[in-house]
Amino acid sequence: MSDVEKIKNVIIAKSWMKTVAFTPLSFAWEWVYRIRRSFFEYGVFKKNTFKVPVISVGNLSFGGTGKTPTIIWLAEWMISHGLNPVVLTRGYKGQLEHSSGLLKSGQKFRLNPFDYGDEPLMISNKMSRGAVIVGKNRAENLLKYFSEVKPDVVLLDDGFQHLQIYRSFNIVLFDATMELNLYKVAPVGYLREGLTALKDADAIIISRADMVTSEKLQKLISILSGYFHHNPSIALTTYKPVGVFDVHDKYIFSVHELKGLRAIGVTAIASPDSFYKYLESFGVEITEKASFPDHYFFTPEDVNDLLIKASQQSAIIICSEKDMVKMKRVSLDSRILFTKVKVEFISGEKELAQGLSKVLHLDSGAQ
Predict the structure, then answer these.
(1) Which residues of 277-289 are buried (b: 16+ CB within 10 A; e: fewer)?
(2) Is the pTM of this model over 0.85?
(3) Contact at 8 Å (CB) between 294 and 269?
């Protein structure tokens, strides 16, 4: 037996031992979530109901699946149909996460991501109408601000496991690039809840669908379909580049003009590799990958170190739009740029729009 074959056998053995060791814990974890979901379903635990439709946007896996860009797309779609949307979000790692805060669209003064969190600010900046309510106790906070914001519809961010609020429509997101062998409940796989929960899904969105083969997409859809109790619509999406912008939100150039540029890639997002691959797809020469934990708040020292490295490497610094929300709080250096993207549907947009139109009492043909 060759050394390579021996190494392969060791890896396979370790993987098998890990699976055997953690399967009971995974099984127990899944059943805890099943029982919890059934308790809310049968009224053992109370659900809060509101006078307006609640649209949940969530996922089953840990990490990023594109909830924030999808929330932004949904808010824009609803505004285009004359509705006043309110986004209900936790504001993860913001100072107001354990209390409450209100972001009204059109607020011009600079708001602090340390208070509200990065994603709520990013969402609010995109909305021409409506508001974002921040805080962990989402039902309580919605009650608190309901009469002030007067929503026509509520978008419940990361809401698939937040069963305390009754929802009219459940959208569940999956990242096409996640390995298929990870579709098991933690710690064996990368799911926070079992696929049996898909019985409550009204629509499935598979993001980054253009980054995998059609064969993998079909396998993923086949896996998910085995758990459907009815026929939710299935949409495939990608992220369309809008351009490269500076810290003042000024358009600098198109992403295609990144070709040949040297750049330090900076991320504080759940899927840093996808961001680096995105940059490389446009021909960027990444001189260094500076990955920070998801929702990390950059310090002046962090940014100063990056700027020194950028000078030494004759490079720019480039990050995501979500990261720039926090980056600009500590530096307005012109060498720091960010990319903007927006959700674009490959397929399934019409079916999703029809499902939303039904619960929002819009014209059934609304697009």
Answers:
(1) ebbeebebebbee
(2) yes
(3) yes
